[in-house]
Description:
The structure holds two protein chains of two kinds. By secondary structure, chain A is mostly helical. Helices cover 83% and strands 0% of the residues of chain A. The longest helix of chain A is centred in the middle third of the chain and has 30 residues, at 92-121. Chain A starts with a helix and ends with a helix. Chain B has one domain: P-loop containing nucleotide triphosphate hydrolases (Rossmann fold, 3-Layer(aba) Sandwich), CATH 3.40.50.300. Chain B is built from six helices and nine strands; from the N terminus they run E-E-E-H-E-E-E-H-H-H-E-H-E-H-E. Chains A and B meet through helix 1 and helix 5 of A and strand 6 and helix 2 of B.
Amino acid sequence: MKLYFQNTFEIFRKELKSEFRTKYVLNSLLMFVLISVSIIRFAAGDEKVDNEILTGLLWVTIFFASVSSLARTFIKEQDKDTSVALKLTTVIDSVFTGKLLFNLILSFITSFITLFLFAVIMNYEIKNLSGFIFFFILGITGLVIILTIIASIISKANNKGTLYPVLAFPVLIPLLVSIIHSTKLTAEGAETFSLYEEVIIILCYIVVVLTASLMLFKFIWED
Amino acid sequence: MNLKCSNLSKEYNSKLIFKGLSFELNSSQSLAITGSNGSGKSTLIKILVNLIKPASGEVEYSVDNKKLMSENVYKFTGLIAPYLSLYDELTGFENLLLFYNLKTGINKPNPHKTEIINSYFEKLELSDAKNEIVKNYSSGMKQRLKFAFAIMNDPKVLLLDEPTSNLDSKGISVFFEIINSLKNDKLIIIATNDENEKSICDLNINIEDYK
Lengths: 223, 211
């Protein structure tokens, strides 16, 4: 178990170092977010966009930004044949958790930048900030777990680009419905405790997908 | 360390690669797997290192007469192969340190870790390039680095798939020097058609005899 955590940390550190050198994922995430927010602003013109619609657009931007870049952590291992070296040196599950940790950190950074841009450029108002941030973090966590495990599946497929959102979207529907609903209500000022049912649904979703991912990863990672 | 393969067979897309392949090896024994291109040498190496499963048959490693679980095989094996690459964006030293840490555990106290890794760079005459990113390495330098990757954790079993491809004459002589020094206490399997590589092995299997 100790080796599992050590390997997780070591893989996370390797991902950070690689990303720091290539800046591939971070750059593509930030460019996607910047372009999306700019397009939404141009489309809206001088009109004040309704907060409900902005919540939806915020999650659309985060979803597609994540889909466009989070798969790379696994695809590059497969394409560059480095996965064999990992298979010969690591506790298998640690590959998933190391990459999940890296994707989480990266997604939190870009998602909070997206939120900041929405607030500044689109005048997105959040009345219950602490409640909103709570649901926002839960939503990103669930999204990243699903996108990471599906990235490991599609890294073995030929048609990676198309397959990723197609496979991810149906699994993400329950999470997206709950998260859009709860962030919309907290942005409008709803108290966090009044949304405890949403909290339970989202937490259960995260526990289930994380457990399933950890159980299935071994079979996905093996050829 | 003992390796026993019983009645192995493998097929891809209903095409038979080999069948009925059995052999047994002990520590300090070496085996050359020969056969023409596409005959299944690499497939057999992948099965032996537990990267893929055979269609039928069994690969059984045992240490001190205790059977090794298949998920623990990686702890005892080292591999060089054309289908194995190290990270282009990391330096040679960072690559070896990463895999050394992954295999042994980063917190396992080893004050000599850096010296051990440096010694492999010296052995393989790569010291000048150890702080360069692997992307800038020539194919021969990458092959030497892969050799260091395979042997650095002192594995009991060495699986070498075309180990001297891309190496110049100096690299090849360094390779044979190291392999000869390791031969006495390791189980070595080489997939090759090179006469010099075949000559250092005790046993020979032609995979085309198992079609």
